[in-house]
Design a protein that fits this description.
200 residues; mainly alpha; Tetracycline Repressor, domain 2; 2 domains; elongated; DNA-bd_HTH_TetR-type_CS; TetR/AcrR family transcriptional regulator
């Protein structure tokens, strides 16, 4: 379903744990120091591994950033899918679960996200669009049983608006803050969505 992140994924459990440690460290460095402080050495120090261990898996920091983005997209797809499976019945429950799942994922990348958008390769852009299409189709499938009086086009527009708003907020919240926490943003966005759907 997903494109490869530009490196060979580990097969053994121990290697997978090591990769997860490096990705978590990379996300932390991006979120706390931004791209200016993002170096292989700083990631290695935070992960508790050697610089050489990272270079054995990645060619450099650009490939590591690409892997972080890939990890974010996987988290987004999994988080949305799990949230929709557990959502209360009804459109409000579906769209609330969807919006909160997106907010939860992006809340961990607010400082790193602008860097993940910069200089994307064609493969990275395609992977990002694929993930957005995947979560859009997931929420539409979950909402489908409740679309008696609401068109699928209206539900699709609502889903795309939520996605666009979340991505934009993650990219700009440090330079253009709205004064809301991510959960408060998700609550307000859900209510705005329901107002729109009820009027459609």
């Amino acid at each position: 379903m997903s494109a490869q992140p530009g490196f060979r994924p580990p097969q053994q459990a121990r290697s997978q744990e090591s990769l997860q440690k490096v990705l978590t460290a990379a996300e932390h460095v991006l979120n706390t120091g931004g791209i200016d402080e993002f170096t292989i050495a700083s990631v290695a120090e935070h992960a508790g591994v050697s610089v050489g261990a990272i270079y054995r898996r990645f060619t450099g920091k650009e490939q590591l950033i690409s892997a972080v983005k890939h990890h974010l997209l996987e988290q987004l797809e999994t988080g949305v899918t799990d949230a929709l499976h557990a959502a209360p019945a009804g459109l409000h429950g579906i769209f609330s679960a969807f919006t909160h799942a997106m907010a939860h994922t992006f809340s961990g990348y607010t400082r790193a996200f602008p860097q993940l958008l910069n200089g994307q390769s064609a493969q990275g852009l395609e992977r990002g669009l694929q993930a957005l299409e995947t979560i859009q189709q997931a929420v539409l499938a979950a909402a489908d049983p409740y679309l008696d009086d609401i068109t699928r086009e209206a539900a699709q527009f609502a889903a795309r608006t939520i996605i666009g708003s979340c991505v934009h907020r993650a990219a700009t919240c440090h330079s253009w803050p709205d004064g809301l926490t991510w959960p408060a943003w998700a609550d307000a966005t859900t209510e705005m969505t329901m107002t729109y759907l009820k009027s459609s």
